[in-house]
Amino acid sequence: MNDQPPGFDTPLSGPPPGAYGVPPPASKPRTSLSVALERSRNRLMVTAAMVTLVFTAIGIKLVDATLLSHASEPRQRMAAEIDAPPVNRADIVDRNGNLLATSLATQSLYADPKLISRPDEVAKKLSVALPELDYKELLGKLTGEKRFVWIKRNLTPKQQAAVFRLGLPGVYFEREERRFYPASNLASHIVGFTGVDNNGLSGLEQSMNKRLVNEPNKPLQLSIDLRLQHILKKELTATIQEFSAIGATGIIFDVRNGEVLSMVSLPDFDPHEPPPLNDKAGQDALFNRATLGVYEMGSTFKIFNTAMSLDSGKIKVTDVFDTTHNVSVGRFTIREYHPFHHNLNVAEIFQESSNLGSLHMALTVGVAAQKAFLTKLGLTRPTALELPENGWPLVPNPWREINTMTISFGHGMSVSPMHTVTAAASTINGGVLHPPTLLKRDPAAEVPGEQVIAPQTSAMMRRLFRFVVTDGTAKAANAKGYVVGGKTGTAEKQKGRHYERNSRMSSFLGAFPMHDPRYIVYVLVDEPKGTKKTYGFATGGWVAAPAVGRVVKQIGPLLGVPPVDDASPEVINATYINTAGQTIPPGPPPPPAQSKGSTVASVPPPSGKQR
């Protein structure tokens, strides 16, 4: 029977199922193995694709780095960053960026005695490689019960290489930092030094330790100028040698903002190898005479006595005081170093450095007023300087009339040179007391200060400063073109309960230029001896004043102070004063008289004849 529709001669499809006795195909079930194989194949393909992608990216980066990014130039900055040790302590630099202290990576050597089988042999080899080690002491460390012992801290690269070549089991290197001081002794009393663990032990390293550690990437910039430091130290050293002194100190100070531009104390020390404290020489070298030492300043204190007297309104510069009669107090007699045969006014008392005149001026002002004035100048408390070595003044208690007498000429009260310089700056800069600082001030920030004397008093003090150099005890301090002024000081040193007549502190506090003061240069010399050149004298005018003059000549150009004509009207009008206390300079001499209608100068007649 044909089941096809009419009009079709051939079937539309193949034979019906089972037409030839072959059963229809049946789908086989998928096994777990085939499923697992298929998943594994898919994962491998994904992994291969990812690996291919990664290596393609790496290849692209290599091509870029080697062919497209200036491969001929080594990447030094990156290499430096990779090899650079961690910085744990900030650098210290001077005002011009010169390095004063920095930290460098070093290797320290330590051992674990429990891992050393033959300590005697190890100790012997290390003693040969590092001859400074003591064999017996080292052997004692290596045979002890501790698991950690230091052998040597902060090895040099040469020492490290020598130990490394030994290949000793149980001996290891530890990376550390060591502080280095490129200026060495030149700024040792300012910068100070650190201990073996890099903690500050003196100077700014100690007082600014927290700042140096907390901000390791920000250098600490000081007000110190390394060039001025070198000049000041050179001149102090020469003065010590010339006068066979036991020490000296000097300060260069900016009177306008209180910055300390230079500070030297001699003897000094190498901060890499600080001297021991168990001997006199070590103690002397570590002692900062500029800030920690307090001394009776002698006649430089007459600066403050004179400023106090004039500022009180009770005394004028023309007032005259008794300088011919000695003053007896109990069993003591106060007299002049060089007796005067007539009374002196205030200008002459300052010029000639009269003790008796200063005494009577102080008594006129009064005990309470003197104490209050010196306190206002900061002379009864430590300065604000950023050093741990900051001396306390020695002041009388109770403060009686006899104390007022002796303090007026610089005895009976002890202060540091930094006290003296800071207070003196306020007497010539317009009357403003600026706290001293070793840190460079921000030029845009307001300078801290307190008005302590009247501007007109300060103007008179500038004239008196100049008077001492032009006509007084400090002519040797004059530096042509820099209008130097100042005050000498000589004080006998007290040893026990007595003053030693041949043991003195000689000083000079100079300032320049006096018509527009900018800087103070202070020099103090400890126990100078007179020489043939100074006719046996060792006072401030003979010892310290010449040193200040030499310093001024050298630092003036570096500080940008242009030399001027000392006799110019600008200078004379701002600095003139005479022995009568007059501050108006004399006018030019009148021209010679001329005959009426004559244009010919008169000529003296021949000898003995009149016209």
From TrEMBL:
InterPro entries: Beta-lactam/transpept, Beta-lactam/transpept-like, PBP_dimer, PBP_dimer_sf, PCN-bd_Tpept. Gene3D superfamilies: 1.10.150.770, 3.30.450.330, DD-peptidase/beta-lactamase superfamily (3.40.710.10), Penicillin-binding protein 2a (Domain 2) (3.90.1310.10). It holds the Pfam family PBP_dimer. GO terms for biological process: cell division. It is found in: Membrane. Residues 13-27 have a biased composition (Pro residues). Residues 86-197 form the Penicillin-binding protein dimerisation domain. Its main location: membrane. Residues 1-29, 579-611 are annotated as: Disordered. Residues 250-534 form the Penicillin-binding protein transpeptidase domain. Keywords: Carboxypeptidase, Cell cycle, Cell division, Hydrolase, Membrane, Protease. Signal peptide: none annotated. PANTHER family: PEPTIDOGLYCAN D,D-TRANSPEPTIDASE (PTHR30627), PEPTIDOGLYCAN D,D-TRANSPEPTIDASE FTSI (PTHR30627:SF1). This is Cell division protein FtsI (Penicillin-binding protein 3). It comes from Azospirillum rugosum.
